[in-house]
Design a protein that fits this description.
Elements (H helix, E strand, L loop, with lengths): L18 E5 L1 E2 L2 E2 L1 H7 L2 H7 L3 E8 L4 H13 L3 E9 L3 H15 L15 H6 L1 H13 L19 H24 L5 H32 L4 H11 L6
Parallel strand pairs: 1-4, 4-5
Antiparallel strand pairs: 2-3
Helix pairs in contact: 7-8
Length: 241
C-alpha cells in the first residue's frame, strides 16, 4: 500500500454525479499506481462526497484488495455504492496453468483440456447490464441516495473457500514486502537477492501450499459452512449477488 507519485490527470470536469473506478490487483492489493492516485490531492478533491462503483477483472483473488480499496475511498470521503467483479473463466485450479501460459507466451486459447485464460467473452458481453442499470439510475437521480444500484444483479460473487487463503497470502506479502524494502533501494544488489529468494518461495507456494490449502478448505467447508457463508455475505456487500 505504498503508492508512487503520479502525474495529475488532465481534462477532468470539476464535478461528477458518479465515479466508476476500475483497478487492477497486484499481490492482493490495489496496484501501486492506483494506490498512489487514491492518495493524491487530486483524488481527495475528485472523490470527496461522491458515490463510487469499483470494477475489478482478475484471476480469482480480489477480496483483500477490495477491503483495502474501501479504506482508500473512505480516506478521500467517497461512498462505495457498488462493486463489479469479473474473474477468470477457468476457476482457481485451471488458472494456475492458464494464467502463467498467457503471461509468458501471450496465448490464452484453450489447450489440452484446459479452458481459455482470462475473463470469458460471455461475461464481458453480459456486463452491459450494469451499464444499462447505472444509466437508468443516473437518469432518475438514484445515485444521490448513495445506495446500491446493482443489487442482486450478479455483480459480485465471493468464493468463500478462497477467503482464508487470501488472508494468509496477504500476511505473507506484507512480511516479504518489509524484508525487500529493508534489503536496500530499488535496483540494489541486496534487494535483487531477496527478490530472487522471494520469487522461488512464491513459485513453491503457488505450486504446493496454495492448491493443498484449497483442497483442505473444501474438505472442511461442510463443518464451517455457516461461518463461511456469513463471511461471504459481508465481502459481497454493497452489491450482493
Amino acid at each position: 500500500m505504498n503508492g508512487c507519485e503520479v502525474e495529475p490527470l488532465e481534462d477532468l470536469a470539476d464535478d461528477y454525479d458518479l465515479i466508476i473506478l476500475g483497478y487492477t490487483i497486484w499481490f492482493l492489493s490495489p496496484s501501486i499506481p492506483v494506490t498512489g492516485f487514491m492518495q493524491s490531492e487530486q483524488a481527495k478533491r475528485l472523490f470527496k462526497d461522491k458515490p463510487v462503483v469499483t470494477m475489478i477483472a482478475c484471476r480469482d483473488m480480489w477480496v483483500m484488495a477490495q477491503e483495502k480499496m474501501k479504506r482508500l475511498l473512505s480516506d478521500v470521503g467517497a461512498t462505495l455504492i457498488d462493486n463489479v467483479v469479473l474473474t477468470d473463466q477457468g476457476g482457481s485450479l485451471y488458472a494456475f496453468v492458464t494464467t502463467p501460459r498467457w503471461l509468458l507466451t501471450g496465448k490464452k486459447d484453450p489447450f489440452w483440456g484446459f479452458p481459455a485464460a482470462g475473463v470469458s467473452d460471455k461475461d464481458i458481453k453480459e456486463s452491459s447490464r450494469f451499464g444499462e442499470r447505472l444509466l437508468d439510475g443516473l437518469i432518475k437521480g438514484e445515485e444521490k441516495s448513495k445506495q446500491p444500484l446493482l443489487k442482486h444483479m450478479g455483480a459480485v460473487t465471493v468464493n468463500g473457500k478462497l477467503v482464508a487463503t487470501e488472508k494468509i497470502a496477504t500476511r505473507s506479502f506484507m512480511i516479504w514486502g518489509k524484508l525487500i524494502q529493508k534489503a536496500g533501494a530499488p535496483g540494489s544488489f541486496a534487494r535483487k537477492i531477496v527478490i530472487t529468494i522471494y520469487a522461488v518461495f512464491l513459485a513453491t507456494l503457488v505450486l504446493t501450499i496454495v492448491p493443498l490449502n484449497i483442497l483442505v478448505r473444501r474438505l472442511i467447508y461442510p463443518f464451517r459452512k455457516e461461518a463461511i457463508e456469513k463471511s461471504v455475505k459481508f465481502y459481497e456487500e454493497p452489491s450482493g449477488r
